[in-house]
Amino acid sequence: MRDFSTDISALALNTATLGHNLDGYGQGWPVERVIDACAERGIGGIVFWRREIGDRAVEIGNRVRAAGLEVAGLCRTPYLTGRDAPDTLDEARASIDMAAALGTGVLTIVTGGTEPGTKGLLESQKVLADKLAVLAPYAAGRGVNLALEPLNPMFGGNRTCIMTVDDALSVCDRVGADNVGIAVDVYHVWWDTRLAAQCQRARGRILGYHLCDWREDTRDMLLDRAMMGDGVADLRAIRRAVEDAGYTGPAEVEIFSSRDWWQRDPGKVLDTVVERFRTVC
User: Quick check: pTM over 0.85?
Assistant: First the structure.
Protein backbone atom coordinates (compact mmCIF):
# COMPACT_ATOMS: atom_id res chain seq x y z
CA MET A 1 0.00 0.00 0.00
CA ARG A 2 1.00 3.61 -0.45
CA ASP A 3 2.72 5.25 2.51
CA PHE A 4 0.48 8.09 3.61
CA SER A 5 2.61 8.78 6.70
CA THR A 6 5.20 10.63 4.63
CA ASP A 7 3.28 11.65 1.51
CA ILE A 8 -0.18 13.26 1.64
CA SER A 9 -0.33 14.21 -2.04
CA ALA A 10 -3.10 11.61 -2.51
CA LEU A 11 -5.28 13.32 0.12
CA ALA A 12 -8.32 15.11 -1.30
CA LEU A 13 -10.87 17.11 0.66
CA ASN A 14 -14.55 16.68 -0.11
CA THR A 15 -15.92 20.05 0.93
CA ALA A 16 -18.85 18.34 2.66
CA THR A 17 -16.35 17.71 5.46
CA LEU A 18 -16.68 21.43 6.26
CA GLY A 19 -20.48 21.38 5.99
CA HIS A 20 -20.67 22.99 2.57
CA ASN A 21 -23.19 20.67 0.97
CA LEU A 22 -26.22 21.53 3.15
CA ASP A 23 -27.78 24.86 4.02
CA GLY A 24 -27.31 26.02 7.58
CA TYR A 25 -24.20 23.98 8.36
CA GLY A 26 -20.50 24.72 8.57
CA GLN A 27 -18.78 28.05 9.05
CA GLY A 28 -19.46 29.43 5.59
CA TRP A 29 -15.94 29.62 4.22
CA PRO A 30 -15.95 30.75 0.59
CA VAL A 31 -14.51 28.46 -2.05
CA GLU A 32 -11.36 30.56 -2.36
CA ARG A 33 -10.56 30.26 1.34
CA VAL A 34 -11.06 26.49 1.24
CA ILE A 35 -8.69 26.19 -1.72
CA ASP A 36 -6.01 28.27 0.00
CA ALA A 37 -6.34 26.37 3.28
CA CYS A 38 -5.94 23.03 1.50
CA ALA A 39 -2.91 24.29 -0.40
CA GLU A 40 -1.28 25.57 2.80
CA ARG A 41 -1.49 22.08 4.30
CA GLY A 42 -0.22 20.19 1.27
CA ILE A 43 -3.58 18.57 0.50
CA GLY A 44 -3.48 17.33 -3.07
CA GLY A 45 -7.05 17.76 -4.29
CA ILE A 46 -10.55 19.05 -3.68
CA VAL A 47 -13.96 17.58 -4.49
CA PHE A 48 -16.78 20.09 -4.77
CA TRP A 49 -20.57 19.91 -4.70
CA ARG A 50 -22.55 21.41 -7.54
CA ARG A 51 -24.31 23.88 -5.26
CA GLU A 52 -20.95 25.59 -4.55
CA ILE A 53 -20.01 26.02 -8.19
CA GLY A 54 -22.94 27.80 -9.85
CA ASP A 55 -21.75 29.38 -13.08
CA ARG A 56 -18.12 29.65 -11.90
CA ALA A 57 -16.87 26.20 -12.89
CA VAL A 58 -14.06 27.33 -15.18
CA GLU A 59 -12.95 30.06 -12.76
CA ILE A 60 -12.93 27.72 -9.75
CA GLY A 61 -11.16 24.94 -11.61
CA ASN A 62 -8.44 27.35 -12.70
CA ARG A 63 -8.11 28.69 -9.15
CA VAL A 64 -7.61 25.16 -7.80
CA ARG A 65 -4.89 24.36 -10.31
CA ALA A 66 -3.16 27.70 -9.79
CA ALA A 67 -2.89 26.78 -6.10
CA GLY A 68 -1.15 23.54 -7.03
CA LEU A 69 -4.09 21.20 -6.41
CA GLU A 70 -6.38 19.15 -8.64
CA VAL A 71 -10.14 19.05 -8.82
CA ALA A 72 -10.44 15.40 -7.82
CA GLY A 73 -14.16 15.08 -8.44
CA LEU A 74 -17.64 16.58 -8.41
CA CYS A 75 -20.66 15.56 -6.34
CA ARG A 76 -23.09 14.65 -7.80
CA THR A 77 -25.66 13.96 -10.49
CA PRO A 78 -29.35 14.22 -9.61
CA TYR A 79 -31.04 10.98 -8.71
CA LEU A 80 -31.56 8.81 -11.77
CA THR A 81 -34.09 6.40 -10.26
CA GLY A 82 -36.93 6.59 -7.78
CA ARG A 83 -39.84 8.91 -7.15
CA ASP A 84 -37.66 12.05 -7.36
CA ALA A 85 -36.17 11.22 -10.76
CA PRO A 86 -38.82 11.16 -13.49
CA ASP A 87 -37.11 13.73 -15.78
CA THR A 88 -33.54 14.27 -14.63
CA LEU A 89 -31.46 13.49 -17.71
CA ASP A 90 -31.11 17.14 -18.69
CA GLU A 91 -29.90 18.01 -15.18
CA ALA A 92 -27.55 15.04 -15.30
CA ARG A 93 -26.08 16.31 -18.56
CA ALA A 94 -25.64 19.73 -16.94
CA SER A 95 -23.71 18.12 -14.08
CA ILE A 96 -21.47 16.41 -16.64
CA ASP A 97 -20.89 19.79 -18.29
CA MET A 98 -19.98 21.27 -14.90
CA ALA A 99 -17.47 18.49 -14.22
CA ALA A 100 -15.86 19.08 -17.60
CA ALA A 101 -15.70 22.84 -17.04
CA LEU A 102 -14.08 22.30 -13.64
CA GLY A 103 -11.50 20.08 -15.30
CA THR A 104 -12.23 16.95 -13.32
CA GLY A 105 -12.58 13.48 -14.78
CA VAL A 106 -14.86 12.01 -12.08
CA LEU A 107 -18.53 12.72 -11.46
CA THR A 108 -20.10 10.80 -8.58
CA ILE A 109 -23.54 9.23 -8.97
CA VAL A 110 -25.85 8.51 -6.04
CA THR A 111 -28.49 6.59 -7.92
CA GLY A 112 -31.76 7.36 -6.19
CA GLY A 113 -34.20 4.84 -4.82
CA THR A 114 -36.59 2.24 -6.12
CA GLU A 115 -38.79 3.00 -9.09
CA PRO A 116 -42.44 3.75 -8.27
CA GLY A 117 -44.63 0.69 -8.60
CA THR A 118 -41.74 -1.80 -8.42
CA LYS A 119 -40.63 -4.28 -5.79
CA GLY A 120 -37.09 -5.26 -4.95
CA LEU A 121 -34.10 -3.76 -6.75
CA LEU A 122 -33.63 -5.42 -10.12
CA GLU A 123 -36.16 -3.36 -12.08
CA SER A 124 -34.73 -0.13 -10.66
CA GLN A 125 -31.22 -1.26 -11.57
CA LYS A 126 -32.38 -1.88 -15.13
CA VAL A 127 -33.82 1.64 -15.32
CA LEU A 128 -30.54 2.99 -13.92
CA ALA A 129 -28.51 1.12 -16.53
CA ASP A 130 -30.73 2.37 -19.34
CA LYS A 131 -30.25 5.98 -18.24
CA LEU A 132 -26.52 5.51 -17.85
CA ALA A 133 -26.35 4.08 -21.34
CA VAL A 134 -27.72 7.42 -22.56
CA LEU A 135 -25.43 9.53 -20.38
CA ALA A 136 -22.17 7.61 -20.79
CA PRO A 137 -21.43 8.66 -24.40
CA TYR A 138 -22.27 12.25 -23.56
CA ALA A 139 -19.86 12.13 -20.60
CA ALA A 140 -17.16 10.38 -22.62
CA GLY A 141 -17.27 13.15 -25.18
CA ARG A 142 -16.43 15.61 -22.40
CA GLY A 143 -13.72 13.51 -20.78
CA VAL A 144 -15.83 12.66 -17.72
CA ASN A 145 -16.06 9.28 -15.98
CA LEU A 146 -19.23 8.34 -14.09
CA ALA A 147 -18.66 6.77 -10.67
CA LEU A 148 -21.56 4.77 -9.26
CA GLU A 149 -21.50 4.86 -5.47
CA PRO A 150 -23.14 1.94 -3.65
CA LEU A 151 -24.69 3.10 -0.38
CA ASN A 152 -25.10 1.46 2.98
CA PRO A 153 -28.27 -0.71 2.92
CA MET A 154 -29.97 1.63 5.41
CA PHE A 155 -30.36 4.04 2.46
CA GLY A 156 -32.09 1.44 0.31
CA GLY A 157 -35.46 2.48 -1.09
CA ASN A 158 -35.25 6.27 -1.03
CA ARG A 159 -31.60 7.09 -1.88
CA THR A 160 -30.15 4.06 -3.62
CA CYS A 161 -30.89 0.93 -5.60
CA ILE A 162 -27.30 -0.36 -5.36
CA MET A 163 -25.97 -1.40 -1.96
CA THR A 164 -22.82 -3.39 -2.66
CA VAL A 165 -19.86 -3.16 -5.00
CA ASP A 166 -21.29 -6.23 -6.73
CA ASP A 167 -24.59 -4.38 -7.31
CA ALA A 168 -22.75 -1.44 -8.84
CA LEU A 169 -20.61 -3.67 -11.04
CA SER A 170 -23.65 -5.51 -12.34
CA VAL A 171 -25.06 -2.17 -13.50
CA CYS A 172 -21.68 -1.28 -15.04
CA ASP A 173 -21.69 -4.61 -16.90
CA ARG A 174 -25.15 -3.93 -18.24
CA VAL A 175 -24.09 -0.48 -19.50
CA GLY A 176 -20.82 -1.72 -20.98
CA ALA A 177 -19.17 1.70 -21.20
CA ASP A 178 -15.49 2.23 -20.43
CA ASN A 179 -16.17 5.48 -18.57
CA VAL A 180 -18.70 4.00 -16.11
CA GLY A 181 -17.19 2.61 -12.90
CA ILE A 182 -17.62 2.75 -9.14
CA ALA A 183 -16.67 4.73 -6.04
CA VAL A 184 -15.89 2.87 -2.80
CA ASP A 185 -16.89 4.82 0.31
CA VAL A 186 -15.86 3.55 3.75
CA TYR A 187 -19.14 4.69 5.30
CA HIS A 188 -21.14 2.57 2.92
CA VAL A 189 -19.05 -0.60 2.61
CA TRP A 190 -17.26 -1.02 5.95
CA TRP A 191 -19.67 -3.78 6.99
CA ASP A 192 -19.27 -5.93 3.86
CA THR A 193 -17.09 -8.96 4.61
CA ARG A 194 -16.94 -9.78 0.88
CA LEU A 195 -15.54 -6.40 -0.08
CA ALA A 196 -12.02 -7.57 -0.99
CA ALA A 197 -13.33 -10.14 -3.46
CA GLN A 198 -15.74 -7.63 -4.96
CA CYS A 199 -12.95 -5.10 -5.40
CA GLN A 200 -10.96 -7.69 -7.34
CA ARG A 201 -13.92 -7.98 -9.69
CA ALA A 202 -13.83 -4.19 -9.95
CA ARG A 203 -10.19 -4.08 -11.08
CA GLY A 204 -9.72 -1.18 -13.45
CA ARG A 205 -13.18 0.22 -12.69
CA ILE A 206 -12.64 1.87 -9.28
CA LEU A 207 -12.85 5.60 -9.92
CA GLY A 208 -13.00 6.90 -6.36
CA TYR A 209 -12.17 6.00 -2.77
CA HIS A 210 -13.87 7.93 0.05
CA LEU A 211 -12.63 8.11 3.64
CA CYS A 212 -14.38 8.61 6.97
CA ASP A 213 -15.27 6.19 9.78
CA TRP A 214 -18.34 4.45 11.18
CA ARG A 215 -19.38 5.63 14.62
CA GLU A 216 -20.30 2.60 16.72
CA ASP A 217 -23.35 4.37 18.14
CA THR A 218 -24.46 6.32 15.08
CA ARG A 219 -26.95 9.03 16.05
CA ASP A 220 -28.07 10.06 12.56
CA MET A 221 -27.82 7.78 9.57
CA LEU A 222 -26.91 10.61 7.20
CA LEU A 223 -25.15 13.29 9.24
CA ASP A 224 -23.09 11.48 11.87
CA ARG A 225 -20.01 10.12 10.14
CA ALA A 226 -16.89 9.84 12.26
CA MET A 227 -13.42 11.21 11.63
CA MET A 228 -10.97 8.53 10.56
CA GLY A 229 -9.81 6.63 13.63
CA ASP A 230 -12.84 7.47 15.75
CA GLY A 231 -14.97 4.56 14.60
CA VAL A 232 -14.98 0.82 14.05
CA ALA A 233 -14.24 0.56 10.31
CA ASP A 234 -11.05 -1.31 9.40
CA LEU A 235 -9.61 1.53 7.34
CA ARG A 236 -6.36 -0.19 6.41
CA ALA A 237 -8.12 -3.35 5.28
CA ILE A 238 -10.56 -1.42 3.13
CA ARG A 239 -7.75 0.59 1.51
CA ARG A 240 -5.79 -2.60 0.94
CA ALA A 241 -8.79 -4.10 -0.88
CA VAL A 242 -9.11 -1.00 -3.07
CA GLU A 243 -5.40 -0.65 -3.83
CA ASP A 244 -4.91 -4.39 -4.41
CA ALA A 245 -7.50 -3.94 -7.17
CA GLY A 246 -5.21 -1.42 -8.84
CA TYR A 247 -6.57 1.89 -7.55
CA THR A 248 -3.92 4.62 -7.26
CA GLY A 249 -6.10 7.73 -7.28
CA PRO A 250 -7.05 10.26 -4.61
CA ALA A 251 -8.26 9.28 -1.15
CA GLU A 252 -11.18 11.62 -0.62
CA VAL A 253 -12.15 12.57 2.93
CA GLU A 254 -15.93 13.04 3.09
CA ILE A 255 -17.42 13.49 6.56
CA PHE A 256 -21.05 14.51 7.14
CA SER A 257 -21.08 15.52 10.80
CA SER A 258 -23.76 18.00 11.86
CA ARG A 259 -23.26 17.46 15.60
CA ASP A 260 -19.49 17.44 15.69
CA TRP A 261 -17.03 18.37 12.93
CA TRP A 262 -19.32 20.84 11.14
CA GLN A 263 -19.46 22.87 14.37
CA ARG A 264 -15.68 23.22 14.66
CA ASP A 265 -13.24 25.71 13.20
CA PRO A 266 -12.60 24.57 9.60
CA GLY A 267 -8.85 25.10 9.92
CA LYS A 268 -8.71 22.75 12.90
CA VAL A 269 -10.86 20.24 11.02
CA LEU A 270 -8.39 20.29 8.13
CA ASP A 271 -5.46 19.87 10.51
CA THR A 272 -7.14 16.82 12.02
CA VAL A 273 -7.87 15.40 8.57
CA VAL A 274 -4.19 15.64 7.67
CA GLU A 275 -3.03 14.12 10.96
CA ARG A 276 -5.46 11.20 10.77
CA PHE A 277 -4.65 10.61 7.11
CA ARG A 278 -1.00 10.22 8.04
CA THR A 279 -1.57 7.98 11.05
CA VAL A 280 -4.65 5.77 10.68
CA CYS A 281 -5.59 5.57 7.00
Answer: yes
